[in-house]
Amino acid sequence: MTEKVLMKGNEAIAEAAILAGCRHYFGYPITPQTEVAAYMAKKMPKIGGTFLQAESEIAAINMVYGVASTGKPAMTSSSSPGISLKCEGISYLAGADLPALIVNVQRGGPGLGGIQPSQSDYFLATRGPGHGDFHVLVFAPASVQEMADLTGKALHLAWKYRMPAMLLADGTMGQMMEPVALPEPHEAFGTDNPWATTGTLMAREHNIVNSLELAPEVLEQKNLARFERYAQAEAEECLWEEYLMDDAEICIVSYGITARISRNAIVQARKEGIRVGMIRPITLWPFPNEPLKAAADKVDSFLVVELNMGQMKEDVELAIRCRKPVDFCGRVGGMIPTPDEVLDHIHALAEGRR
Amino acid sequence: MADHEIVIAGFGGQGLLFTGKVLAHAGLIEGRELSWLPSYGPEMRGGTANCNVILSDTPVGSPIVQHPNVLIVMNTPSLDKYEPMVVPGGKIFVDSTLITRTVERDDVEAFYIPATQMATDMGYHGLANMILLGAVLAKTGCVDDGTVDEALHHVIPARKANLFDANKACIEAGKAYVC
C-alpha cells in the first residue's frame, strides 16, 4: 500500500479512475460532484487523456457511448437531476452491451430538489436507470477509501461483464476528506476487446455496436444472453460487510453515509447491552440477498436506515421473504439522521415497542 | 488520546475550512483516524459556514459532529446554534472581536480571544482563524506543534508559500494569548 493522502471523496474517485486506466472523462458541472470534473480538467491533459465539459449531461453520456464503442474505458459523473438526463444513454449502453462508469453523487430530489446529501436514487440505480430490461452494477461506498477502491473495481467489472456500472455515492461522501491509500496504477485496459470498433485493417468482419434490433426473435436472444451475464455477476460479484452480527438480535441494514451513522448508534447500543449488528451492502446490485436470508434465521428484527422514504426496505423484505419485521429510519430532502435518532429506533425495537 | 470532535463555524470566507484542513493534515501526519466534512453550497459564498473535524485513535463512524468537545466560533449565529450542542466539559473558543455576547452555559470552558482585532493589529488581516487555532492547540493539545508546521506546508498553496511565516506568527500569538 502507498502512503495515505488526504482527499475529498470526489477527488478520490477521479484519481482512482485515472489509476485504474481510464483516460476519457465527459461531464457537466453540478453540485455536489463538481470536484470530479475539476480534478479531471487539471489532470487529464497532463497524461494524454481527454477531459471534455459537454454542452449537457445527455451529450456527456453519449460521448461515453462513443468511446466505449472503441473498447476504451470511459466515464461520466453527475448528481441526481443530471443522472435522470443520462438515463436514455445508459439504456443505450446496456442495449449495446457497452461497459462504462457512471458516478452519481446523490442530492435531494425529486426534480431539481436541493444540493444536500441524499440516497433517494436507490430505485433509479438498482431497478435499471432507463427503459428496457437491464441492470447496471451498483456500488455504494461508505468511506473515501471505498470511493477510490470501488471506482477501480466498477470500471474493471463493467468491462468484464460488458455492462454499465454506477458508483452511487452521496453529497457527504463526495465532500468529506479522509486519509486514503490510493491503489497501484493499473495497466490501461481496453486493448483486447474483440467486439470493439477499432478498424478492421481489412482482416476481419466489421464489428457493429448498436442497440437497435428489429427482429424480435433475435432481440429476445440478446436479452436472454445479457441476463446470463447478469446471473453470473449476481453469483460472483456481490459485496457486503458484516459488523457485530455474531450475536445480533437486531440487524441494521444500511449503506454509504447512513451506515457510518448507524455504526455510532450500534456502538452506543452495545454499551447499553443491546445486541445489534449491521449488514452493510457494498454492492446494491447485485444485492446481498443470501447474507440477509441467513440473518433472518437468527435475528428478531431488521432496521433499514437510508436517506430516502424506504427504498431499500423493499429489497430487504424481499430478501428475507418478510419472515421478520423490518423497521425503517430515514430522513429526506438533504436532512441526515443523527446517531441518536437511529438509537431511538434501536431502543424501540429492543423494548418490543415496534 | 481522547477523541477530538471539532466544529469550526462562522461566515464563509473566514478560513473555517482551511483551519479544519490544517488540523486534518496534522492528524494525517500523526497517523490518526480522522474525517473532515465541510458545509457546501451557497453558505461558502458569504453565509454561515462550518467544518466538522474528527481526530480519533479508532475508526471514525459518522463524520458529522453531533456533540462537539471543541467549538471554534467566528460569528454570533454560530455560537447561538452550536453552544447547546457542546458536550459538558467541552471547550468553546470565541472570536470576541466579532461576538460580543459571552457563553451562557456554565458546564463548559470558554475562551475569549479578540482574534480579528489581533490579526489586524499584526498586519495579518484575514488570519484571525490561525490565531484561534493557536489558542485551540494550546488548550486542547489535539495535535502536536511539530505536525502543525508540517501540515501548514501541505495546506498552504505553493503560490502563497510566502504566507507560511504569517500563519505561523498568528498561531503563536493565539497560543500566547491563552497561556
Helical percentage of chain A: 40-55%
Q: What does the main sheet of chain B amount to?
A: 6 strands, mixed
SSE order of chain B: EHEEEHEEHHHH
Mean pLDDT of chain A: 96
- Determine the CATH superfamily of the largest domain in chain A: Thiamin diphosphate (ThDP)-binding fold, Pyr/PP domains
Which stretches of chain A of 5+ consecutive residues score pLDDT under 50?
Answer: none
The radius of gyration over CA of chain A amounts to: 21 Å
The low-confidence parts of chain B are none
Say how many strands of chain B there are.
Answer: 6
Overall form of chain A: globular
Report the total helices of chain A.
12
Per DSSP, the total helix count of chain B is 6
The number of domains of chain B: 1
Into how many domains do the coordinates of chain A divide?
2
The neighbouring-strand order within the major sheet of chain B is 2-3-1-4-5-6
Q: In a few lines, what is going on in this structure?
A:
The complex is a heterodimer of chains A (354) and B (179). Chain A is α/β, with parallel strands linked by helices and 354 residues long. Chain A contains twelve helices and 14 strands.
Describe this structure in words.
The complex is a heterodimer of chains A (354) and B (179). By secondary structure, chain A is α/β, with parallel strands linked by helices. Chain A has helices spanning 9-19, 34-43, 57-69, 80-95, 122-126, 144-161, 171-175, 216-236, 256-271, 289-296, 311-319, 339-350; strands at 5-8, 24-27, 50-53, 74-78, 100-106, 137-139, 164-170, 177-180, 240-243, 250-254, 276-281, 283-285, 301-306, 326-330. In chain A, strand 2, helix 2 and strand 3 (50-53) form a beta-alpha-beta unit. With 179 residues, chain B is an alpha/beta fold. Chain B is 37% helix and 21% strand. Chain B starts with a strand and ends with a helix. The model of chain B has no long low-confidence stretch (mean pLDDT 94). Chains A and B meet through helix 7, strand 8 and helix 9 of A and helix 1 and strand 2 of B.
